[in-house]
UniProtKB/TrEMBL annotation:
Taxonomic lineage of the native organism: Bacteria, Pseudomonadati, Pseudomonadota, Gammaproteobacteria, Cellvibrionales
Organism, scientific name: Cellvibrio fibrivorans
Boundaries of every TIR domain copy: 1-101
InterPro entries in UniProt: TIR_dom, Toll_tir_struct_dom_sf
The protein, known as: TIR domain-containing protein
Source superkingdom: Bacteria
Length: 101
């Protein structure tokens, strides 16, 4: 199963470290796409992100105040709904608590 993780790091609620922890946790059940954890391959990163989205089986939204205002996150969710991908949600604060525990 491929899971596309949608998030915004603009408000600091989601960090690369919390996304690494999430990725490690999900690796046991799926192959995840978390853009900030991927090495940049080309000048066509937006296309790479969209390709990862449309070839995924589900989307996991890491909710934070910044995801509400992120136009990119809204686009990802709109595309996911259009192609019928299931949407799962997790609060960024829950990731932080799980990481600290």
């Amino acid at each position: 199963m491929r899971i596309f993780v949608s998030y915004s790091r603009r408000d600091g609620a989601v960090t690369s470290e919390t996304l690494r922890v999430l990725n490690t946790h999900l690796q046991g059940v799926s192959k995840t796409f978390i853009h900030c954890l991927c090495e940049s391959e080309s000048k066509w990163e937006q296309v790479r992100v969209l390709w990862a989205l449309v070839t995924s089986h589900a989307v996991l939204l890491v909710e934070s105040p910044a995801t509400v205002s992120s136009r990119w996150v809204r686009l990802e969710l709109r595309i996911a709904r259009f192609i019928g991908l299931p949407l799962m949600r997790i609060k960024a604060s829950d990731l932080v608590r799980a990481h600290d525990a």
